[in-house]
Amino acid sequence: MTVRTRILATLLALTALALAFAGTTAYILTYQNVDEGIDDDLIESASELRTLAASGVDPVTGDPFSSAEEVVVAAIQLDVPARHEGVLGLRAGQRPLVSQQAIEVHLENDPELVEAVTPLLDSDQVVLRTISTATTEYRALVAPVSALPEAADAAGLSDEPAALVLAYDRVAEHAVTQATFRSYAVVALAALAVTGVVGWLLTGRLLHPIRVLARTAQNISDTDLSARIPESGNDDLTHLTRAFNGMLERLEGSFDAQRRLLDDVGHELRTPLTIVRGHLELMDPADPADTTETRHLALDELDRMHRLVDDLVTLATVGQPDFVRPVPVELGRLTDDVLDKARPLGDRTWLVDSRTDARTVADAQRLTQAWLQLAANAVKFSEPGSVVAIGSRTNSDGSRVHLWVRDEGIGIPADEVAHVFDRFARGDHGGQRREGSGLGLAIVSAIAEGHDGEVTVDSEPGRGSTFSIVIPVRPVPDADAGDPASGPAGTTSRPVPPVPPAPPLQRTVASPPTAPTPSLPPALRPVPPPSVPPASAGRTSPHSPDPEGRTAP
């Protein structure tokens, strides 16, 4: 059975049970009320007979009663039987006395009833009982005149016994009730049928999103995850639809990331593997010089593959919950630490444009990784001795912080700015292709997005470029404001409680060439040259990220 059928069957069963219970209860109560009404009317008739006997005078003729029979005759004449009620007078050894009025029930026509009540003629008390015959079932009252104390005290009554018999046709009286509840049963069945039709349509409408969800799930394959379920309303099924669509988005993102990773690996690792294999096949093992040269070439290609795999692994973790681990960060101290780590990247004039003292909640290690990647790129695309400056500042309202690297290098053409953050984007400059895998700026972009931020670039060919990481400033809990466990760059080994998210920026994009550069202070603060021998412009320190190209292919 389908869910729709089970729901409808349950609904109809509960509705039928409720209607049956209500109808049965009402029928029983009505049945009892009818019986109680019959008994009350019969007892009232007995009371009237007692009153009539106590008066001792026939109200019709005005003469005193001389016998019990006269009392019974007067009672029959005065009594107005109700519907389904009959009246009868009993006398010893004679035919019953009958009413001359137009009544519905003639008790004298049922010999079994007459035979059943005759023995009660000499009873010393009024009898109320149910009598069943072949004709029907009666609720009868037998009131012998001699059983009435008022009649016994009356003078002049003969000793001939007589009794008044009043009886209701109980079956006929209850037939009205039964007819009413037969109508109720018909109406209940009709209501049940209407409930079934409405319930079928309603459950079909309510379960429509689930059927759409099932069809969508059946149509989804590993190559097409674009199908989505329309959302409408704000009920539980709508929440389920939203959750399912969110799951599809996450799955689509995961599949896309997996495909990109496979494509990237296949694209970038095939060339170094082919180079290594070709040189090993052509190597002359008997020639020491050829062997040494081939060994150096193979090791160099393996180092490049190792760096490439590291970068791909980093990009593969983008979007995972632990990609960014926010902790309290002192941005001014982080600026100083990044500068100290960037100086060995190359023989450049290292400057600090500005330094903010703001604090925020961010991943200091990821920000350092992205900042140093930008510094390494600046070294790679600038000449020895030129200025490479870093800086940090907050905007006017303190809601965003800008972390930038500025160089005086070759710059980026305007038509290539939009592609600098693409994976494996490497450009030719003056016919020379730079070293690197082309993943560095993609990693920087992913780190910025992990902080709900973006990366912008302002560049002019021949005059240099400025790359800025813009992230929101998140409030730091007061309990962590002077935490002695803070490490270098203002980090702490303890995770902080969750903080309200800042309004998200747009997805990381390259800004147009006309984007404003960070405002600089009136005087630049030069940094003393490092005490260690500077590295060449095209190399990186063992602890720095791999310098990457930042221009479009």
UniProtKB/TrEMBL annotation:
The lineage of its organism: Bacteria, Bacillati, Actinomycetota, Actinomycetes, Micrococcales. Residues 495-504, 513-533 have a biased composition (Pro residues). It holds the Pfam family HisKA. Residues 478-490 have a biased composition (Low complexity). The keyword Aminoacyl-tRNA synthetase does not apply. Its main location: membrane. SUPFAM superfamilies: ATPase domain of HSP90 chaperone/DNA topoisomerase II/histidine kinase, HAMP domain-like, Homodimeric domain of signal transducing histidine kinase. It is an enzyme of class 2 (transferase). It comes from the Bacteria. This is histidine kinase. Its EC number is 2.7.13.3. It is found in: Cell membrane. It catalyses: ATP + protein L-histidine = ADP + protein N-phospho-L-histidine. It comes from Isoptericola cucumis. Residues 264-475 form the Histidine kinase domain. Residues 474-553 are annotated as: Disordered. Residues 204-256 form the HAMP domain.
